[in-house]
């Protein structure tokens, strides 16, 4: 039994071929400066024992010892050159930029940070080194529509982005949000409208409005609107005063002050949000964009909420979905602005309903007949929505740009060549989500096996798999 | 019926150069021979005039008196067609004899032409001529005898030897000798020779008037019908971005001219491949033949697949695509074969056996 010798030196003194004695174990010693890091101070029983045990968990951090960065020679871990891509600007929205990847830089009022994004997009941005997206021809089309909508009431520009699963509707919506924000619009972006109807946020029945208020969600929304649009909101003022629950706002207060008051107190947040929207409906100085992802979830007749009689609450009886429905149907309208919604094609909990499909002219998976169930109220709320179909597939150019972006981010396990690109493009049939998630990120193809000429075994020499 | 008799008489009976001492004559019994004075008759003596007159008188007397025909008189009886009549299998033995004659003549010919005996190296370089002889049943009808194994073997041995001489003659370039042997051999060759020799060889797939190939692929219990047509490369979209530096020649980068890239569309039961096969492994399996052959983006593929599950259907489509690529481009045959893509995967679900729970799984072993 070796006691006095240190274990590391023992192993070094042995010839290389021999195995270490079973009683002697080697563990990484903690770095010199961190010897006492995990020692418990001033506790009884923490004295060092005189007998050195062969195995002791003290002063050990397991098998981990951080390596010097210069020792990292694996190619994957080499510092990669930073992606040099242009940042998203409204001036870049031209025909010759189709197929170019642009980055969403972090600004003070970054909508991605404050409003959030749908879950898939969030994961993708986490994997990428920079948050970016590719400009497609539909992007140019949408920006042209928004340019023309900047001077018209919002009830004239109500679009719904449709298309099969994974064709890029959410990304297009985010691009529209970024564009409008860069153009100094007021932007209200609700990335996951599903959360307003799936019973994850508090709902309180309000006798005055005879609807269910969602105070916490209203508070969050006000906070987000304020963070992103603070500059614009400070220029706008209230026309009428508001007094509610011992809080009063005079007629000249800026909308920013109103919103900040509402974002701090959930008790008044619902009313403040309603007032804010009313004031925005009155002012005609700054255009307003209301962008809603998961648009079909608020058109489902039954939400996940239950009333005291255990019947499902309708979406138009909940405060937040109701105001979205009102703006989407044109019953309320911003004097300047647009309403854009994006469907989520493959959500079984909140599918695209017959009323929406009828209005948008979308064929749908199952055949519909005049006898299928439809709600008159929701049909009313869906009237006037226009379909903006998103192309189902990337053009080869756009796909190539996306491929290069992931390639530069070291996301490829296989050698990056045109064969891999074409194979993945063909397999995914150009579908953006399938191309990125199942093609680039989900492939098991690796580097081709290299024939080792120096081995004496012929089967290895021939490189047989 | 000696089917060879007429052939042989016309073809081979004509001797090549040897002069026969005797001429061929039909068989006549000696009693009927009529001798003239000038002719030589073996063992005949000089007869007196009186003896000759007496003999002539005798014959003259007998002829008008004999009105009835003697049944044992051999003068008018029909002769048997073949000398092997009394074997009972005249046709069979006639053919055997003719074949043996043909072999001996040909051997003689080839020996005189110094083609026999052939050294080993020359024998190895002979042109291969696989033959398929008639079946014993067919020969039975031809020879009018029951072709037992030994009789069939005897005939085929002779025919194989003749075939060897045919090979030698064709390889040496003696077309007339080869033709003569070939005419004999062709009588005994089976009508299904072409079909038998071409068994297992891939039939070439033809492209239709639009340049489409139609191939079949199978895997497990799935079957796929695959149509492939080359993609028409239209004029590519003009890139209208004007790089000012390049225009003025100030750019340092060497910019390559844009390549027109065509992409393949694969439709399975009229549904895009990404929608029909959600699993990436199925999609990769289908695209693999295009990758291996290096023709990604060259062909559009339309498939109708039936039967089986996802793996079977994707394997069947891949098989069909590989055959289609081979039809369009035969040069890719070697690389597709090495990748085992042209092979119909023979693995099928193994049957359940009695006494076993499944194909291989045994029931739990119980000690007692």
TrEMBL record, chain A:
It comes from the Eukaryota. The keyword Mitochondrion applies. Gene3D superfamilies: P-loop containing nucleotide triphosphate hydrolases. Keywords: Mitochondrion, Ribonucleoprotein, Ribosomal protein, Transit peptide. GO terms for molecular function: structural constituent of ribosome. It is found in: Mitochondrion. Pfam families: DAP3. InterPro entries: P-loop_NTPase, Ribosomal_mS29. One of its GO terms (cellular component) is mitochondrial small ribosomal subunit. Belongs to the mitochondrion-specific ribosomal protein mS29 family. This is Small ribosomal subunit protein mS29. It comes from Lentinula guzmanii.
From TrEMBL, chain B:
Keywords: Ribonucleoprotein, Ribosomal protein. One of its GO terms (cellular component) is mitochondrial small ribosomal subunit. Residues 60-73 have a biased composition (Acidic residues). InterPro entries: Ribosomal_Su5_D2-typ_SF, Ribosomal_uS9, Ribosomal_uS9_CS, Ribsml_uS5_D2-typ_fold_subgr. One of its GO terms (biological process) is translation. GO terms for molecular function: RNA binding; structural constituent of ribosome. Gene3D superfamilies: 3.30.230.10. Residues 57-89 are annotated as: Disordered. Belongs to the universal ribosomal protein uS9 family. This is SSU ribosomal protein S9P.
């Amino acid at each position: 039994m070796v006691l006095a010798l240190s274990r590391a030196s023992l192993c070094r003194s042995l010839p290389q071929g021999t195995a270490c004695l079973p009683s002697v174990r080697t563990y990484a010693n903690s770095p010199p400066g961190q010897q006492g890091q995990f020692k418990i101070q001033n506790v009884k029983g923490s004295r060092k024992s005189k007998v050195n045990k062969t195995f002791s968990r003290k002063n050990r951090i397991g098998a981990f010892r951080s390596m010097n960065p210069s020792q990292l020679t694996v190619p994957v871990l080499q510092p990669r050159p930073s992606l040099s891509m242009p940042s998203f600007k409204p001036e870049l929205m031209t025909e010759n930029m189709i197929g170019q990847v642009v980055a969403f830089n972090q600004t003070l009022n970054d909508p991605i940070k404050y409003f959030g994004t749908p879950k898939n997009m969030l994961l993708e941005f986490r994997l990428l080194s920079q948050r970016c997206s590719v400009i497609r021809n539909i992007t140019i089309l949408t920006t042209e529509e928004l340019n023309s909508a900047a001077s018209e009431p919002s009830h004239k520009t109500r679009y719904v982005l449709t298309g099969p699963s994974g064709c890029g509707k959410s990304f297009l919506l985010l691009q529209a949000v970024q564009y409008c924000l860069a153009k100094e619009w007021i932007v209200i972006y609700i990335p996951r409208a599903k959360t307003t109807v799936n019973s994850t946020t508090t709902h309180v029945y309000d006798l005055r409005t005879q609807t269910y208020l969602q105070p916490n969600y209203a508070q969050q929304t006000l906070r987000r609107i304020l963070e992103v649009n603070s500059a614009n909101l400070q220029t706008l003022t209230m026309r009428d005063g508001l007094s509610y629950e011992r809080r009063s706002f005079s007629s000249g207060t800026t909308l920013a002050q109103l919103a900040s008051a509402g974002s701090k107190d959930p008790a008044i947040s619902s009313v403040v949000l309603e007032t804010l929207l009313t004031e925005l409906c009155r002012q005609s100085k700054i255009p307003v964009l209301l962008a809603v992802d998961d648009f079909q979830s608020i058109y489902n007749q039954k939400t996940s909420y239950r009333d005291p009689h255990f019947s499902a609450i309708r979406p138009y009886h909940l405060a937040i979905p109701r105001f979205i429905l009102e703006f989407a149907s044109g019953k309320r309208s911003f004097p300047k602005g647009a309403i854009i919604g994006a469907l989520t094609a493959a959500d079984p909990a909140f599918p695209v309903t017959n009323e929406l499909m009828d209005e948008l002219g979308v064929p749908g998976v199952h055949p519909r007949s005049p006898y299928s169930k439809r709600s008159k109220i929701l049909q009313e709320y869906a009237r006037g929505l226009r379909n903006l179909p998103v192309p189902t597939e990337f053009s080869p150019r756009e796909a190539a740009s996306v491929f290069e972006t992931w390639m530069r981010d070291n996301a490829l396990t296989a050698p990056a060549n045109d064969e891999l690109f074409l194979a993945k493009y063909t397999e995914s049939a150009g579908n953006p989500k399938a191309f990125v998630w199942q093609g680039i990120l989900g492939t098991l193809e690796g580097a081709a096996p290299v024939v080792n000429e120096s081995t004496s075994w012929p089967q290895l020499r021939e490189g047989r798999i | 019926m000696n089917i060879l008799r007429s052939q042989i008489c016309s073809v081979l009976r004509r001797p090549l150069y040897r002069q026969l001492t005797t001429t061929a004559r039909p068989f006549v019994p000696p009693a009927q021979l009529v001798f003239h004075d000038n002719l030589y008759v073996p063992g005949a003596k000089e007869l007196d005039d009186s003896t000759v007159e007496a003999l002539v008188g005798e014959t003259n007397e007998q002829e008008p008196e004999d009105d009835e025909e003697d049944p044992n008189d051999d003068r008018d009886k029909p002769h048997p067609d073949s000398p092997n009549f009394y074997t009972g299998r005249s046709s069979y033995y006639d053919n055997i004899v003719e074949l043996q004659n043909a072999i001996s003549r040909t051997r003689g010919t080839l020996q005189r032409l110094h083609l026999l005996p052939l050294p080993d190296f020359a024998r190895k370089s002979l042109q291969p001529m696989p033959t398929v002889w008639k079946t014993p049943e067919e020969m039975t009808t031809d020879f009018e005898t029951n072709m037992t194994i030994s009789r069939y073997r005897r005939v085929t041995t002779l025919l194989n030897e003749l075939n060897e001489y045919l090979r030698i003659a064709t390889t040496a370039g003696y077309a007339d000798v080869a033709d003569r042997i070939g005419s004999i051999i062709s009588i005994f060759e089976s009508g299904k020779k072409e079909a038998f020799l071409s068994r297992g060889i891939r039939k070439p797939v033809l492209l239709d008037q639009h340049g489409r190939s139609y191939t079949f692929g199978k895997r497990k219990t799935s079957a796929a019908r695959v149509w492939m047509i080359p993609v028409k490369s239209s004029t590519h979209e003009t890139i209208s971005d004007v790089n000012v530096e390049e225009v003025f020649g100030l750019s340092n980068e060497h910019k390559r001219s844009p390549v027109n890239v065509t992409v393949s569309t694969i439709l399975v039961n009229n549904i895009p491949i990404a929608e029909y096969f959600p699993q990436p492994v199925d999609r990769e399996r289908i695209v693999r033949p295009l990758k291996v052959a290096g023709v990604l983006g060259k062909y559009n593929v339309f498939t109708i697949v039936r039967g089986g599950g996802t793996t079977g259907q994707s394997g069947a489509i891949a098989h069909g695509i590989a055959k289609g690529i081979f039809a369009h481009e035969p040069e890719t045959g070697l690389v597709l074969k090495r990748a085992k893509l042209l092979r119909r995967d023979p693995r099928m679900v193994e049957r359940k056996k009695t006494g076993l729970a499944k194909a291989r799984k045994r029931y739990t072993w119980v000690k007692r």
